[in-house]
Specification:
Distance between the termini: 15 Å
Shape: elongated
Bound molecules: dinuclear copper ion
Strand content: 15-25%
Structural class: alpha+beta
Strand order of the largest sheet: 3-2-1-5-8
Length: 341
């Protein structure tokens, strides 16, 4: 497990470092380092809005400082009022028309950016993924590949001369969530009983960090996600490994029995077994994931055991209950889960 998984906890120094050095996608997320076509469009529109706001800010502050210095009270001033100006058409027109023009320009640029991104036609070779927002984790389904996974979206990277776009169908199982990976695209909400769409096109291989961006309940903050962009070959290997049924290691048969005799199977699926629950994340390839609890903890054997002992201690309010397992049962179930590579 590399240290970048912990970057959530050390964001401030990492952000400072990010300001100085070019940011690789996996280090820390940054809206000013777009690495995907839609994120580039959003970035350009945002820069324009920032530049306009900065110009207004500088102008207002400069006039204010000038007025404060130039017209400050001096010894020997009489107490009389300066000349008062009422109803100057020129001044009133200037401060009405100018802001309207600025706002209209910003509206047009924003509308054009949104139309360009949303209107982008889905190429026939686009990878299709359905993302389902749930309290408080992400389900990723690849309908054409027969893969179901959670919290970590694996996609191919887009290379010059070999563009590869991923189109996401966004759904919600309970409340409104929002899919946001700042370096890949703007936010798009996942809304119950409605289907939204968005697309991403990472230009660099690596891990992109994201987060649910719409308050969705107690553990909204621990509804993190990561997008892992692979070279085409690496992605092919990942697909092949995910398409395999769950490993069945005879060494872990006791843990396996305990797992299948508890209510774990009511909420979790393990492909190729009788566990068909759909309420919680699919566990078929649990150990291929970097984190537990949608980014709440790194996926290490110790954390996995702590999670199984009491998920509420790591992610208070999460919908997985404390299963009240004995130490021995814990060890055996964890030993089984560790075989789900
Ligand atoms: Cu899901 Cu906030």
């Amino acid at each position: 497990m590399s240290s970048r998984v912990l970057s959530y906890g050390t964001r401030a120094p990492a952000l400072l470092a990010g300001a100085v050095y070019a940011v690789a996608p996996e280090q820390v997320t940054n809206i000013f380092e777009p690495l995907s076509t839609p994120a580039h469009s959003v970035y350009r529109a945002a820069l324009l809005a920032l530049a306009v706001c900065a110009a207004i800010f500088v102008t207002v502050v400069a006039l204010l400082v000038y007025a404060i210095v130039r017209f400050r009270r001096r010894p020997g001033d009489d107490a009389s009022e300066p000349p008062q100006i009422y109803g100057s058409n020129q001044i009133e027109l200037a401060w009405t028309v100018l802001p309207i023009l600025i706002v209209v320009v910003l509206i047009l640029v924003a509308a054009r950016t949104i139309a360009d991104v949303e209107g982008y036609p889905q190429p026939p070779d686009a990878l299709k993924v359905t993302a389902v927002g749930r309290q408080w984790w992400w389900e990723f389904r690849y309908p054409d590949l027969g893969i179901v996974t959670a919290n970590e979206l694996h996609i191919p990277v887009s290379e010059p001369g070999r563009r590869q776009v991923t189109f996401l169908t966004l759904e919600a199982a309970d409340v409104i969530h929002s899919f946001w990976v700042p370096q890949l695209a703007g936010k798009t909400d996942l809304i119950p009983n409605r289907v939204n769409r968005m697309w991403i096109e990472p230009k660099q291989a690596g891990t992109y960090l994201g987060n649910c961006a719409e308050y969705c309940g107690t553990q909204h903050a621990k509804m993190r996600l990561r997008v892992i962009a692979h070279s085409p070959e690496e992605f092919g290997a990942w697909v092949a490994s995910q398409q395999r049924s769950a490993a069945e290691d005879p060494q872990a048969s006791i843990g396996r029995e305990i797992f299948f005799s508890t209510s774990c199977v009511n909420c979790h699926s393990i492909q190729g077994t009788s566990a068909k629950g759909t309420f919680g994340p699919d566990l078929t390839h649990l150990m291929s994931r970097q984190t537990l609890g949608s980014g709440a903890a790194p996926n290490t054997p110790e954390k996995l055991r702590a999670w199984m002992r009491n998920p509420q201690a790591i992610k208070e309010g999460c919908l997985m209950p404390d299963m009240q397992l004995s130490n021995q049962e814990l060890d055996q179930i964890v030993a089984y889960l560790l075989t789900l590579k």
